[in-house]
Amino acid sequence: MKFSKTLALLLLFFAVYWSYKSLMPSYSPDEDTVQEHFSTDRALFHVKNISIEPHAVGFSGHARVRAYIIAELKKMGLETITQEGYTAGDWGNLSKATNILARIKGSDDGKALLLLSHYDSNPHSSYGASDAGSGVATILEGVRAFLAENKTPKNDIIILITDAEELGLNGADLFVNNHPWAKDVGLVLNFEARGSGGPSYMLIETNRGNGKLIKEFTEANPIYPVANSLAYSIYKMLPNDTDLTVFREDGDIEGFNFAFIDDHFDYHTALDNYERLDRTSLAHQGSYLMPLLHYFSDTNLGNLKSLDDYIYFNLPFFRLVSYPFDWIWPMFGIVVLLFVLLLFDGFRKKKLQLKDTFKGFVPLLLTLAINGIVGYFCWNIITWWYPGFKDMLHGFTYNGHTYIVVYVLFSLAVCFWMYHQFRKTSTPNLLVAPTFVWLIISGLVAYYLPGASFFVIPLFGLLAAFMVTINQEEPNPFLLVFLALPAIFMYSPFIKMFPVGLGLKMMIATTLFTTLLFFLALPFFSKLKNKNTLAYLSLFLFFAFGISSHISSDFNEERPKPSSLLYVYNADENSAIWATYDHSPIGWNNQFLGDQKREPGPDEYKTLSSKYATKLTYIAEAPKKDITLPWIDTVKDTIIGENRILEVCVTPKRNVNRLDVYTNSVPLNIAKVNRIPLSEDFLQKRRNRLVTHYITNNEYTELELSFPKDSVLELSFYEASNDLLSHKDFSIPKRPKTSIPMPFVLNDAILTIKTIKFE
Q: CA neighbours within 13 Å on the CB side: how many for 511?
């Protein structure tokens, strides 16, 4: 029996491994595969050519990438066109976007299938290999393989490679609201990335129910679906929009997002390059595209809307499992009834004692409390010990995966040790508490987060194991492991998914999911005589991996530290400063900040905050340079009725990349930028920022504003160029190889500030 339990334990650990391994296809060189099949290596060829250099809007590499994609589409015999125009989207980010379009004609006149990705990289240092060179490459290779079959689809297939996605989904906005093809689209497949590796998650975009989409997706039968309705519920609550969001919001067009999010530390950085792109992740994207392309190119796309929502999740061997929301409460009612019946049966057979069942709550509550508290303070502890990690704005460090293992092992050590202290309490009595807690969790998510209602399914396995332990003194350990498999397959990936997707500040999800999963496998674990040994083994491994995480915590050429440097000239005060967003400056930027650096005051440079509410950390006086200011011309200033109408044109006098315009608190009735109106909703929520214009070819910025005639309007113009390191008036050495430009903030830039008051 002891050997059987050991073997069953190894089987359980293998199941955990398989819950991750089964998510993705394997990758092996496939350049010579038949032309009708998707080749990851052929897709990689496109990634390599797209990611030669940063290619954000306005950068020199941007036009080169556009020309490359157009040439590749034309090689396939596709007539390729472009769509160009200004848009500001919903974010107040103005840019001139140039979309790339091609169309494969179908035999019927139904709705078209649209394949979507974007070709611009994030400003200013990202090479855009994963985000979204991988998406563009997936579509190029997938369309090539599809055309090689020489089959005519029923539906038209539109290829749309958008521009300026990184600036505010501008290219998608331009297409959906201005292009005649938009009205033909019935479904969108969008390929994205928010890291450089890991499984690609499927997320649905729909204004109604997801029932029809899930049914059709299941019929298409992709081999490696990674999707669950909990992830989509969370996605809808977070500010993580993609191009597909514009199709849903502005065009009422459904679609599927496919995006890999692991190795999040590479996202929007100079590390998003060809070498670091996970080949398996790219293969996973291809494994989605090909079956979906074949299926939806021949399916009626005018009948995808549904009022019904479905719960869905992936399982090894079963692929995507789904059922209607209507089943949520009946399933919950069944498990409650089964629990009550088992309690009655246990007390009747004297396998349960009231005192011991209450005693079973003690280890459960203590493990949840300890592991929850440790997980909650994880990020604070890590950044206190390693303050340089605060400069990784993603919130996920290079050794983040090791930290996940560290905290999982700590949680297991607490669980094993705590339940070892209650080894004299019988297994049926110990199972009452976790079953009751999981019932509460299942009821709460059914009411507040119905997308997570599949949490109830592993409860059936727990209840079955509960029944077995009531009726058998020594149940078969393999049976107990078998009954825990649904929980392992469903919840093990969540242990990694939350901190990877949301940052190490969400390590509490890892520690709590580990603990809750332990409870679901408790029928087996409680039968082990060596729980104390497993506790000490987990603790030993906790320290071993903790040491490993410490060894890999330094920054080097393989794990470069993000750093930032700005030169800011304030024309209003005729003063200049050096500035950084770094919490821990390195020698490279600290040589300019010097010993006199200080933290900005509460009212200084507030408008320079960036994504993740990142603000300047240190500033220091800098020598004044002769930086040419933009020409600001008042074209029109008149009063009509109760409103003052103002037109201002801002023309760069040096090579610049962006212009940010801020106002005081004067309410604006109407605002147009380069004749593009800013939405009323944006104007109400914007606070002080009016617009950010990402400039191409030093184009002007024209403002048309209407505001109450008795108001005094202030306009502050922040003009920036990303040429600090190459500007002739500065002698900035190259950043050391152990550092990269900090993403998400204005960086390596020369910034001028000029304020004009209109009284």
A: 25
Distinct helix (H) and strand (E) counts, the chain: 23, 23
Angle, helices 40-50/60-75, rounded to nearest 10 degrees: 150
What are 218's two structure tokens?
A: 């299941």
Looking at the chain, the whole-number percentage of residues with pLDDT higher than 70 is 99
DSSP class per residue in 362-383: HHHHHHHHHHHHHHHTHHHHHH
385-389 contact pairs (CB < 8 A, 24+)? 386/553, 387/583, 387/584, 388/555, 388/561, 388/583, 388/584, 389/553
* Pick from 707, 661, 401: nearest CA to 545: 401
Which of the residues in the chain have pLDDT under 70? Answer: 1, 236, 238-240
Contact (CB, 8 A) for 693 and 95 = yes
The number of residues making up the chain comes to: 759
Residue 721 near residue 690 (C-beta atoms within 8 A): no
pLDDT, residue 674, reads 95
Query: Which amino acid type is present at position 42?
Result: R
* Residues in CB range of 321: below 8 A, 6 or more apart: 312, 313, 314, 315, 454
Residue 330: the pLDDT is 96
DSSP annotation string for 679-739: PHHHHHH-TTEEEEEE-STT--EEEEEEEETT--EEEEEEEEES-TTT-TT--PPPPPTTE
Q: Quick one: which H or E segment has residue 536?
A: helix 531-551
> What's the 3-state SS for 246-262?
HHHHHHCCCEEEEEEEE
How far apart CA 141 and CA 38 sit, in angstroms, is: 6
Cα–Cα distances (Å) from 360 to 355, 436, 465, 473, 700, in that order, read 9, 11, 16, 18, 71
Tally of CA atoms within 13 A in the half-sphere of 342 that contains its CB:
23
Provide the pLDDT for residue 732.
Answer: 94
Interatomic CA distance for residues 451 and 268, integer angstroms:
30
Query: Do the Cβ atoms of 93 and 150 come closer than 8 Å?
Result: no
649 vs 631: CA distance, rounded Å:
8
Question: Is 216:292 a contact under the CB 8 Å cutoff?
Answer: no
From residue 242, give the alpha-carbon distance in Å to each of 94, 228, 255, 715.
Answer: 17, 18, 11, 31
Instruction: Tell which residue, 263, 245, 264, has the closest CA to residue 255.
Output: 245
pLDDT of 735: 95
Q: Which residues contact 97 (CB under 8 A, 6 or more apart)?
A: 57, 84, 85, 86, 87, 162, 163, 164, 170, 171, 174
